[in-house]
Design brief:
294 residues; eight-stranded mixed β-sheet; two-stranded antiparallel sheet
Length: 294
Amino acid sequence: MEKSIQRAETLLEALPFIRNFYDKTLVIKYGGHAMVSEELKENFARDIVMMKYVGINPVVVHGGGPQIGETLLALGIESEFVDGQRVTDQATVNVVEMVLGGKVNKEIVSLINRHGGNAVGITGKDGGLLKAERHRKIKKSAETDRPEIIDLGLVGEITEVNPSILEILDHNEFIPVIAPIARGDNEETLNINADFVAARIASALQAEKLILMTDTEGVKGKNGALISELTRTRANRLIRENVIRDGMLPKVNCCLHALKAGVRKTHIIDGRLKHALLLEIFTEKGVGTQIVEK
């Protein structure tokens, strides 16, 4: 009986958060180890279903870099990276579309549905959700000390988001699961970073929260300790001081852009932690780093 009472008290502790987020949209970028571990994949699907059943509207944007890499390797296609971004030729983008829009997307949809959800898998190409143009990276040349344009191939930068298809799915109680590929100006398929896609979709939907799942605890300070909450001012200072750098830098920038566009709160959380999503949403302390405007 004591254990039953404790379970009831735990549920009651979540009540204020359920009330606050009822009928609100949360955009979740799903990636990293949480997409590899079988246990974590199951937990993620159950967390998403739980959110939907208590009246929250989750929108999932997923990555799939490791799965793409494995498939390219199996097909004998070499991968080239520039500052962590995959250079994408036509052969590579064909694999990207097959893996992200097919295998990975459908697996996530199947898991959510198996746990009682009603998920629908789409890509940024469906319903005109995302429009994009080729992204050409500008980098200063070490030899000439002048900026040079690096062509990453079929890598995209979002120019427009049309959330109509997401609004239709939400109205009909579906859970959208989105693969981060888009159609370019010349009808070509473009590969886009999933963090960027999640941030732009959250902005277009004026989401209550943007949550980026990673393979780290969150943003850390100079002393290596986790920072539980960051304001824009402090985040910008840590960027200038080169404390926030490397792979964390674009994630923080995604959060800052989303906040500027009207998203209320943003979060970077450790997807390796069991039920990280529920802990972030339904507990006072949460997990990871919360980034707010001020």
